[in-house]
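Tokens in:
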């Protein structure tokens, strides 16, 4: 109210029918906070709306979800740009700041009578069904379907956009990560399927032929290698033994005719399996070679997968 009192007259009043335009404006301004976020909120909103319609949401529910999706990251303005743009591991204090941005979103929206109803939904975009999300660490019994759709849409959109600490994932790889999250109990299966369908990532479209006749599992391993993961880290991420991970790595080498991780790391970029991003070298040679002492994984272990923002491993896209 105090701000309105010092605003030049006449004050412009926005009717309920104009709230979508207001939400889009706030979304665009929020995404301009850091360059790599450009278009993020609108992308999340488009996916969420399409998914909601597939799930037969009532039109009023679709409208609410659309606005909440546009505004879900407005709380980012409460966190310093230096944290969002940091290419290396976050400190404990920095990570706590990141975890609070959904709280800031909720508080900001709650201050506006016209937007207050959106606050609880928008503030849940990082919650996970297994309680591993933030900021409330809510569990499945307290997370409504609309929030589950928003979480899946946000995660998918974020994974397909580059961040300072990782490259963007190809659509197929992002779909695989989201499905894995559903299997692990973080995401709602129906919400994930609806979001992937909205993104054009149906089961049929994911059955693609990879370069060099790589299998889906070998592609998963290769993408982790590209991020700088060691065999042990690959094994932990994919729930396989280090020995099995080593076998996959050797099979990849044989199929693509290379003998080092640096050579293997080039393939995903040259074949557009991953889109390049800021802050992540395209080969391990750029950060000290394959000896494991100075590689990207060791220097940025807190930034390793999962690439959606659901744990301290990734401060997340918002």
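Residues out:
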């Amino acid at each position: 109210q105090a701000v309105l009192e010092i605003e030049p007259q006449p004050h412009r009043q926005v009717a309920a029918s104009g709230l979508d335009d207001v939400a889009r404006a706030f979304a665009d301004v929020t995404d301009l906070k850091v360059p790599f976020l450009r278009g993020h909120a609108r992308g999340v909103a488009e996916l969420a709306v399409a998914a909601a319609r597939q799930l037969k949401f009532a039109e009023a529910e679709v409208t609410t979800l659309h606005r909440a999706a546009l505004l879900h990251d407005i709380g980012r303005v409460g966190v310093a740009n230096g944290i969002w743009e940091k290419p290396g591991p976050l400190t404990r204090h920095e990570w706590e700041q990141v975890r609070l941005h959904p709280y800031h979103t909720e508080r900001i929206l709650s201050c506006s009578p016209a937007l207050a109803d959106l606050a609880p939904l928008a503030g849940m975009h990082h919650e996970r069904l297994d309680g591993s999300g933030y900021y409330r660490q809510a569990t499945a019994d307290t997370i409504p379907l609309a929030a589950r759709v928003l979480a899946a849409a946000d995660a998918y959109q974020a994974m397909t956009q580059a961040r300072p600490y990782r490259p963007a994932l190809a659509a197929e790889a992002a779909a695989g990560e989201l499905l894995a999250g559903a299997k692990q109990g973080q995401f709602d299966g129906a919400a994930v399927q609806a979001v992937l369908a909205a993104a054009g990532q149906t089961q049929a479209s994911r059955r693609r032929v990879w370069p060099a006749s790589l299998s889906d599992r070998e592609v998963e391993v290769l993408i982790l290698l590209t991020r700088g993961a060691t065999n042990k880290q690959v094994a932990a991420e994919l729930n396989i033994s280090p020995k099995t991970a080593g076998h996959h790595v050797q099979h990849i080498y044989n199929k693509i005719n290379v003998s080092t991780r640096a050579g293997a790391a080039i393939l995903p970029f040259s074949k557009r399996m991953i889109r390049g991003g800021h802050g992540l070298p395209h080969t391990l040679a750029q950060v000290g070679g394959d000896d494991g002492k100075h590689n990207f994984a060791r220097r940025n272990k807190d930034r390793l997968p999962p690439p959606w923002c659901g744990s301290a491993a990734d401060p997340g896209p918002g």
